[in-house]
Amino acid sequence: MKTLLVTGGAGFIGGNFVLDALAQGGCRIVNLDALTYAGNLDTLACVRDKADHVFVEGDIGDAECVKRVLAEHQPTAIVNFAAESHVDRSIDGPAAFVQTNVVGTLNLLECALAYWCAAPLDRQDGFRFLHVSTDEVYGSLGPVGRFSEESPYAPNSPYSASKAASDHLVRAFHHTYGLPTLTTNCSNNYGPYQFPEKLIPLIIQKALIGEALPVYGDGRNVRDWLYVGDHCAAIRRVLEIGRVGEVYNVGGDAERENIHVVKTICALLDQRRPFADGRRREALITYVKDRPGHDRRYAIDASKIKRDLGWRQTESFESGIARTVDWYLENQAWVGRVLDGSYRMERLGM
Q: Each residue of 289-345: pLDDT tens digit?
């Protein structure tokens, strides 16, 4: 049975990956997470007592911790989800993003390199370091075109700049030292277990309780929406048969304006949880001042991973957003425990 060291596996995408990989079977997960505000052990409740899941509380920036985990568990691959990921928070405090996303990734790479170099040749051949990144490193698109793996980097926020730096470090460790790396750059994820500072869970929660629904600027910013389960399937595929040193873009082929996303959520909640007085939730939409440096449009060209690795997304935006709304309605206890912390659905990144 292969052993995967998954960093950031108590967060949104990492947590979904852990649950999905264990459900698929055939692997053991060592889950390293620092349990910052967005890390939540509730997400992992159903695998807490499983023999094939080991949770370790620790930071990817702690070299002694990472070395100890590698030596003890001897993973066949590292999948790095650990990151500060919210653009608005990066505007308020960029230093934390540099510390985790750049310095932390560098430490993880250095520890992985030492571990890989010391391994027997047969284990070196099968080892992989998969770095999970974002389409935001490419900057902002105009009204046409899509980001490909050859698109130049042009990050516009402290968050995307820190992720761009980590991507370059991963590339450098492959080309300089031969470390067998893989990188994925994904479009906007959504789905179960997402921390409610992000657009979709934030709007679901505010619309459910009848609060104003804040929409930045004119609401016409476009994102390519990717259901998290499809993203996890893509990562597994890259890990299994991706070519060492390559980058794979993962997108949902689901470009939608933010205002369309918000109105879709309103309509779904009006169907599932109508207000007693008959009000429509669209009336709660409130346009607020745009955030600084807000990229206008992202869109991913995922033809490489489809052509070379045979991956395809299974959820349309319509099916995925309906599943997501239903999950949040059915898991309000999880949301309530998340909101018991310091975050109260307030605006960040002013």
A: 988 878 899 999 999 999 999 999 999 999 999 999 999 999 999 998 887 765 445
* In-domain check, residue 174: yes
135 is catalytic: yes
Direct distance between the N- and C-terminal alpha carbons of the chain, in angstroms, rounded to an integer: 48
Q: Which of 59, 84, 88, 135 is catalytic?
A: 135
Q: Is 136 annotated in the active site?
A: yes
Predicted model pTM:
0.94
Give the Cα separation of 277 and 90 in Å (integer). Answer: 40
Domain that holds residue 105: 2-191+226-252+297-314
User: How confident is the model over 46-85, as pLDDT tens digits?
Assistant: 998 999 999 999 999 999 999 999 999 999 999 999 999 8
Looking at the domain assignment, is residue 211 inside a domain? no
The number of domains in the chain is 1
From the candidates 33, 59, 84, 159, which is the catalytic residue?
159
> Domain containing 138 — which CATH number?
3.40.50.720
- CA-based nearest residue to 135, from 200, 189, 198, 201: 189
Catalytic choice (136, 224, 255, 295): 136
